[in-house]
Amino acid sequence: MKRAEEIQKAVVLGAGTMGHGIAQALAQCGVATTLVDLDAAALQKGLAAVRKNLDTGVEKQKVTPEQRDATLAKLAGSGDLEAASREADVVVEAVPEKLDLKRSIFAKLDATCRADALLATNTSSLSITRIAEACKRPERVLGMHFFNPVHIMKLVEVVRAAQTSPQAATLALELSRRMGKDPIDVKDSPGFASSRLGLVIGLEAMRMLEQGVASAEDIDKAMVLGYGFPMGPLKLTDLVGLDVRLSIAEYLTKEVGPNFTPPQVLRDKVARGELGKKSGRGFYDWKN
Domains in the chain, please, with CATH? Predict the structure, then answer.
């Protein structure tokens, strides 16, 4: 298995919010990165989002025009996972939070990729150990849980499955640092560290809203001004996606206990299609 500074080729599977952000971060640190999505429209949307992020960075003088151009030169798109991943040093999967889907993908990657390739999943709560079980070489499988927006947020949870080798974990930690991130080392357990802690606060904020304790704005302001949170838990839920948080809450209810039971307001909003910023409405109105 290569060292982080030796990694030259990466594949990111899934061109959604997290996937295109991970691809951008890899390309920005000099890794030739292929963003893969079977949906051609989603792929083009993801690539366009990376360019928009970089253009915004140039406008705000956070990124130089030369850095933007160098990043875009390192980034490509593809609809063929097998061809793209065959020579990859690292593959990061960022598809929807469905265990069976991820297991089937990792079984294919295990058969297609080089024996020394690092295989990472961006799942925010699913069992890395269960995902790794789908592979004949599970020692190279782990979690690399990035945070939205990936090109700005520094945290990466490197999650060790029961099968993960120390070499794979060290490589993921070092690669995270090469990407400009500040990783933490976490043992595989339901919700890891961040999702488990963050979700408890978010669900309680929803219960307070249901009970009329305060408005969404004031609940969020209490945590921002009173506890130094950069963003309130309800606004953060809108950015993450209410459907994503509902899925995680249902999973943690089953795996950990009733403290994670989803509030009715969350179920109702998801049923109405109010999924947060991506749909234009969640706990806040994002249309304007």
Answer: 4-187 (3.40.50.720), 194-278 (1.10.1040.10)
